[in-house]
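Data deposition worksheet. Section B asks for the primary sequence of the deposited chain exactly as it was used as input, without tags or linkers unless they were present during the calculation. Section C holds the resulting structure in token form. Section D is free text for depositor observations; keep each observation to a single sentence. Incomplete worksheets are returned to the depositor.
Section A, Depositor: J.P.
Section B:
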Amino acid sequence: MKTHLRGLAAVLLLLLLPLTAAAGVLTVDVLDIGQGDAILVRGGGKTALIDSGDRNSPTVAQLHQLGVERLDLVVASHPHADHIGRMPDVLQSFEVGLYLDSGLPHTTRIFESTMSAVEDVGVDYASANRGMILRLGEEATFTVLFPIDGKMLRGTRSDLNSNSVVLRLDHGANSFLFTGDAEAPTERALIAAGIEPVDVLKVPHHGSHHSSTRAFLEALGPQIAVISAGRANKYGHPDDEAVHRLGEVGAAIYRTDLSSHLRIISDGESLEVLEGSVAEIAQMKIAQMKIAQVETTTPPSQPAAEVALSKRELRKQVREARRAARAARRAER
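Section C:
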């Protein structure tokens, strides 16, 4: 099992992991589920899952293997099958606190099945919007950076990709950016809105040549770049030029197609990356973390009523999304 270490504190943390971890540790697991995304953020028994992989992905089995029992937050970055293919199974297999998506419906049965599962299970539902904050205790915070003001990008190469939910995660001095399948138009919008540097980048769109523009990478300046891609996938991900641009900005690059499961460990000051099988990494029990219950808050500029929807309003949004998906599919016939 390989590691990428930043600083002496990370070395000490590695030595302590088999027994107990320092207080305030946060882990980000990039699951090895083939061509797709499934990312687990965890601390203190509280968890967030970003995407679920495709319908053939072993996502649920791997989550069980990693000891997950509840998901406080589930995010669907966008409704393509390699990101929500196993979402109905995830929603039915775990107790889920909040389901968050881009608010942009799709015409596929898997999207409709996902929204049906949200409604059937009774999960709270919300559409992501820039400025929305989701706190994981006192030490870690998700901030939605995209979509912006509910305005969707239109007429792009792929509107679903370009309107992916983009999340920044801050844990102490460390920062992460989760980008779904965001493409160049999304990156330009984020730069225009004032994107800040991050330590860890989940590379957009599996390292596609449609993403990871030079301007975007220079604005972020990531030290670590993680690519989730299937081995010998038919799309040719990651693109050689995108990988080259990541190297040019000084990022250490990790790929699930080469390294299998990846775990990034943050103690709020230093970062460590572990590479290996899910079985190897699952052996490492992370204990005594201080990440508390996921708690949503509203930025001062946004009225609470716009985020804190009632159960009835949440169910209404889910039903409307399902109807939109059915109508769009009928229009394509």
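Section D:
The longest strand covers residues 95-101.
The first helix runs from residue 8 to 16.
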